[in-house]
Hints:
alpha/beta, eight-stranded parallel beta barrel, binds alpha-L-arabinofuranose
Amino acid sequence: MEKYVIDPFNRLSKINKDIYGHFSEHLGRCIYGGIYVGDDSKIPNLNGMRIDVVNALRDMGLPVLRWPGGCFADEYHWKDGIGDKSKRKRMVNTHWGGVVEDNSFGTHEFFELCRQLGCDAYVNGNVGSGSVREMNEWVEYMTFDGESPMSALRAQNGSESPWRVKYFGVGNESWGCGGNMMPEYYADLFRRYNTYVRDYDTSNKIYRVACGPNGDDYNWTDVLMRLAGNKMNGLSLHYYTVPGSSWDNKGSATDFSEDEYLTTIAKAYNIDKIIGIHSSIMNRYDPDKRVGLIVDEWGTWFDVEPGTNPGFLYQLNTMRDAVVAALSLNIFNKHSDRVHMANIAQTVNVLQSVILTDGADMLLTPTYFVFKMFRDHQNNTLLGSHITSDVRQAGEYKAPQLIESASVDENGVITATVVNTCPKREAEIDCELPHFEVSSVKASVICGEMHKMNTFDDKTSVTERDFSDFTVKKNGFTSVLPACSVVKFTIK
Ligand code: AHR
């Protein structure tokens, strides 16, 4: 029996709802076909956005959306994507499949999508191949309410009022696809470009995100914090879980052994250590934790689904992905003093998606149900909590069998989410909330054999179901968590 202690009186950091954010790039069928079909499509849409997808994302509770990339962002020239659609420039999407990008989804369409989703906007600017002026004018175009060339252009294109840009990324992966820069050089460029990301409206103070490290590149964080830490609001971190031995052999999304499953879990869990080390470097320069660590790309990355365009990064999603999503979200909650936002890659049809589409058809993946289940943590206060657990070694990585986080809302309702990462063994837990009289517990579960998934023929194989395998005690409860499961307890 594992001991789980939640201290309802040890209130820690606020869990920013944007930790539950998403990322949608002009990549494969994420935007085109997955979200945007155009208003003359036979697929039911509102102003070009798929009604089924928008409704599902709203139900899931999507708080913030990052766009237009990714690598695409550093080749994107925003003026190509405004005005009369028939005259918009057609370009080659060199990073992703070499397909024609017709720019029919641009700035106005992105904000229309955010409006329909009821979410905040995270726009990523172009440092790699764009000019300072281009970035400056884009921010003016999006946010300025007075008289200016860019606000006039916006009005001419149908939007009299400005939009709210909550987050703005100054470049993406500047150490890689965004320009292959050295950290010292990028730090200077960040200082320069960022100067012209103006706050035109005092009610829209833009949260500026500098390009941060790739995984465990601690030197990048150190240099950026030292040379530009006082100019940024956030520093990004990209961390993908790739179970295979190399980028050429990432492993199959659906056909994997128990060893590969355990390696995936252990590699995903490694983000806990990576965030911890980046945070301690940031603490040296920013002890008050003003600057957020923004995990704006994370998730599983497998070999593409056989027979699909390798540049489209289309992969299927199983219970293994649900476990990775849940353990990662628990880790982000635990680090919410430093992690202000995270954006899983990518919303629809790309990498660890929450939705897959096939023409007019759509399915919700196991990862979708995790996000929906965890939405109760959004904007809650993290509680001190700990669970005992076996630890499994997988090569050079290791992960505990049980990974949890707990939070409380403004009415005192406690949400605890526990992942049993073991594909074979149940876990008995004895949960105690010292000095707290439990009046009720409700629970739900997402579980199944590690390969279990939803398909277009069987869309409800993996879903969130009520869970009753627990017994309430005076100061807590006991429970038996199924193998390969994610369980949420709502405690009053
Ligand atoms: O999410 C896919 C790609 O991964 C993004 O475009 C890039 O930023 C990262 O390398």
